[in-house]
Specification:
Elements (H helix, E strand, L loop, with lengths): L3 H24 L3 E4 L18 H18 L4 E5 L7 H10 L2 E2 L10 E2 L7 E2 L2 H9 L4 E5 L15 E6 L4 H14 L14 E6 L8 H8 L4 E5 L6 H7 L2 H22 L28
Parallel strand pairs: 1-2, 1-6, 2-3, 6-9, 7-8
Antiparallel strand pairs: 4-5, 7-9
Helix pairs in contact: 2-3, 2-8, 4-6, 5-8
Length: about 290
């Protein structure tokens, strides 16, 4: 039978380990995912209406989140619009735990930053939220378009990033797409065009003020625009559930690859060595008669 002091010391060691892990988790800065626009405007959906940007990411952002969390990092999904109250969108958002910021960007409405009022942008609500949560990075999940009709024009997909701090994150996601998605057997046909990394800053693109705000806070940010909604090959690919999940997981892998280099997980503290159980006193040998 185990002695009580020994049992107590093992319980104390287990509690200390659990406490240290909980403290470590609280120090990790979250990855923030924004799931795009709540709109049916031209460019936010495919010409045949099969794919809508917001509906797509409402369903599949959770795949990105799962990859990030499996690697040990906290992840938050947000949307700047109002919460859907019924149907599939409401179910998807509930499953993913989407945080609705309830400030839709209808007609590309722009807001000044509460942290850096000199910067104004349509995505500022999300940028300010990420700053408030001390995010380690922000990924805006969008889908691109060249217009409201099908196009055969060749164009490289884009991953936009903030100029000072986002390039390494953008390149990591690009690498994951090249390895797992683009022009691969069973992958998304892309004509060998790859994905272009495009840094943005206020001087070249006034609507990118929210990217500057995140740069000011040294928070890497990217906008995923590597899939075109008016490209039949792209739409046919992401219309298949397994492909859509594969795309989302590739984005998650790219984010995790960046995190592993730039935001390494803290090493867990080793548990304290268990105390040795007290020895039982030995009986003195009996004297023998001579």
């Amino acid at each position: 039978m185990m002695h009580m002091p020994r049992l107590f010391s093992l319980a104390s060691a287990a509690f200390a380990l659990l406490a240290s892990l909980c403290v470590a988790d609280e120090t990790l800065r979250p990855v923030v995912l924004d799931i795009g626009h709540q709109t049916t405007a031209s460019g936010a959906q495919s010409p045949d209406g099969k794919i809508n940007e917001y509906a797509f990411w409402s369903r599949y952002a959770i795949e990105v989140k799962n990859v990030v969390e499996k690697a040990g990092y906290p992840c938050i999904i947000i949307n700047r619009g109002n919460a859907p109250t019924k149907g599939a969108l409401a179910a998807y958002n509930k499953e993913a735990g989407v945080i609705q910021l309830n400030k839709p960007d209808k007609n590309a409405k722009r807001y000044p930053s509460t942290h850096h009022p000199e910067h104004i942008g349509a995505g500022m609500i999300c940028a300010d939220y990420a700053i408030d949560r001390n995010a380690c990075c922000v990924v805006f999940l969008h889908l691109n378009s060249l217009g409201s009709s099908w196009s055969s024009k060749s164009a490289a997909g884009l991953i936009i990033c903030n100029k000072k701090h986002g390039k390494a994150l953008a390149e990591s996601v690009c690498a994951a797409l090249r390895a797992d998605i683009l022009d691969r057997p069973g992958g998304m046909p892309n004509g060998g065009r790859g994905v272009k990394v495009l840094p943005r800053y206020i001087g070249s693109q006034p609507s990118a003020g929210w990217m500057n705000t995140l740069d000011e806070e040294k928070i890497p940010a990217i906008v995923f625009e590597a899939v075109y909604l008016n490209n039949r090959g792209h739409v046919n690919f992401i219309s298949v559930d397994a492909n859509a999940r594969k795309l989302a997981r590739a984005i998650g892998s790219g984010v995790v690859n960046w995190l592993s280099v730039h935001v390494p997980l803290p090493a867990p503290e080793p548990p304290p060595a268990p105390e040795a159980a007290p020895e039982s006193p030995q009986s003195a040998p009996a004297d023998s008669d001579s």
